């Protein structure tokens, strides 16, 4: 018993670090929108959301931990070329192209803009100033990643949890109203819609790359034994999963009971901002601002650090600090296009790469059962890509009628889950071929 308590005490900070790295812009703005739009069907919708927002990221953490904390080593099981290409795309997606700029944009639009006069909030200058100050702080915190556990896990996260607890507690004790009616796909397929909406958090992608940050933090703490590193990372994943579940359920509850008090909205940021004001009055805006800023700072630091570490490893002649500076400047520029544009641009990419990440992660966990057969990975990922690619193209308003008519026969295609059955069939065929073909062809 003492050993268990000692293990928890020693590694809780790492778990809080991982939770803080996950808890960022998307984790704050998407659950309230789901809660409001799902209405009476919130239970099924939230179960679907928790699978992609909590369950699969936890499995991804386990998969990456067993692979040595490196996504590229995991992706290399398909092929070395795929390993570099896929890993680079994932890092850039949750890095300077989408996720890092989203933290800056959300920090402004929810944390700063509500405190400004309306005319000033809609002007370009405050966003530019806020983004420059925000990313200057992020750059400073990222220069020394060895202090991440102290700076993020031990300081920012407890404060962040306290603020969210205040908002959530008030929403449960004094709900703003009754749930409204479900809208859109939440009417007919709440579970599937919640599942797909979980993509927007980017938590599975984040889990695949945070492994390297956690591994480095453990090494800096003197943990060098691989088995202990894996056990600690899994424990950290459980802590993060519990924390995320609490946050998602709480924020969705706020959105679910908000419609009669604040009306409907297509922006989860507006929902949580207005709800905070209803729940706490003028103090609500200050509480929300603190929540958003703390969440976005911790996530941006983790993502920027992970990206710089990966690309420095890929291109060792370019220093870690140089990548930090370049990615920070790029993220600052992208932030100023606005939150709506960033989300709209990210969705097609996520529809393409998220299914690939899920299939890769699930296969890696079952790797021992087919002894790492390359053909299993290849035949599972090819049909997954062929379906998910069109989901992304369709989101970009690029439609191929003949191809879509072919894909429509797939189960769950209308729910953007048409890739699921082809992935399963492909993996099964790959397993059969792995057993039948000479191992020199596929290893």
TrEMBL record:
One Pfam assignment: Branch_AA_trans
Keywords: Amino-acid transport, Cell membrane, Membrane, Transmembrane, Transmembrane helix, Transport
Gene Ontology terms describing biological process: isoleucine transport; L-leucine transport
Main location: membrane
Cellular compartments per GO CC: plasma membrane
Source organism, top-level taxon: Bacteria
Membrane topology: Multi-pass membrane protein
Stored Gene3D superfamilies: Amino acid/polyamine transporter I
Subcellular location: Cell membrane
Membrane-spanning residues: 12-30, 42-65, 77-99, 124-143, 155-176, 196-218, 230-251, 286-306, 318-339, 345-363, 375-393, 417-437
Protein family according to the UniProt entry: Belongs to the branched chain amino acid transporter family.
Protein name, UniProt field: Branched-chain amino acid transport system carrier protein
Native source species: Lysinibacillus macroides
């Amino acid at each position: 018993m003492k050993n268990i308590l000692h293990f928890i005490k020693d590694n809780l900070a790492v778990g809080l670090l991982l939770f803080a790295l996950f808890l960022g812009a998307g984790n704050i703005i998407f659950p309230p929108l789901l809660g409001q739009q799902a209405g009476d069907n919130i239970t099924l919708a939230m179960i679907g959301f928790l699978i992609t927002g909590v369950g699969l990221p936890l499995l991804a953490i386990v998969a990456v931990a067993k692979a040595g904390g490196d996504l590229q080593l995991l992706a290399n099981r398909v092929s070395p070329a795929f390993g570099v290409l896929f890993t680079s795309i994932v890092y850039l997606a949750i890095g300077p192209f989408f996720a890092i700029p989203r933290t800056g944009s959300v920090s402004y639009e929810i944390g700063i803009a509500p405190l400004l006069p309306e005319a000033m909030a809609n002007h370009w200058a405050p966003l530019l100033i806020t983004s420059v100050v925000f990313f200057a702080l992020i750059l400073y915190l990222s220069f020394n990643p060895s202090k991440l556990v102290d700076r993020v896990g031990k300081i920012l996260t407890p404060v962040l949890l306290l603020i969210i607890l205040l908002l959530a507690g008030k929403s449960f004790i004094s709900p703003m109203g009754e749930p409204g009616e479900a809208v859109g796909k939440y009417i007919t397929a709440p579970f599937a819609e919640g599942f797909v909406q979980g993509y927007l958090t980017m938590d599975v992608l984040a889990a695949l790359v945070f492994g390297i940050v956690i591994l480095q933090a453990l090494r800096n703490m003197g943990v060098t034994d691989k088995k202990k590193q894996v056990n600690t990372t899994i424990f950290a994943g459980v802590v993060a999963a519990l924390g995320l579940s609490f946050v998602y359920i709480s924020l969705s509850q706020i959105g679910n009971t908000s419609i009669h008090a604040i009306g409907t909205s297509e922006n989860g940021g507006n929902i949580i901002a207005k709800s905070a004001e209803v729940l706490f009055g003028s103090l609500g805006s200050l509480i929300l601002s603190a929540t958003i800023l703390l969440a976005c700072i911790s996530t941006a630091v983790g993502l920027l650090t992970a990206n710089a570490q990966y690309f420095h490893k890929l291109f060792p002649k370019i220093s870690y600090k140089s990548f930090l500076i370049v990615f920070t400047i790029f993220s600052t520029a992208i932030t100023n296009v606005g939150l709506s544009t960033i989300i709209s641009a990210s969705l097609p990419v996520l529809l393409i790469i998220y299914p690939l990440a899920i299939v890769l992660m699930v296969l890696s966990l079952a790797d021992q059962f087919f002894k790492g057969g390359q053909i299993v990975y290849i035949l599972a990922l090819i049909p997954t890509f062929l379906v998910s690619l069109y989901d992304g193209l369709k989101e970009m308003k690029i439609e191929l009628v003949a191809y879509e008519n072919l894909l429509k026969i797939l189960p769950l295609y209308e729910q953007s889950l048409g890739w699921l059955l082809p992935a399963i069939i492909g993996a099964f065929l790959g397993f059969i071929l792995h057993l039948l073909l000479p191992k020199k062809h596929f290893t």
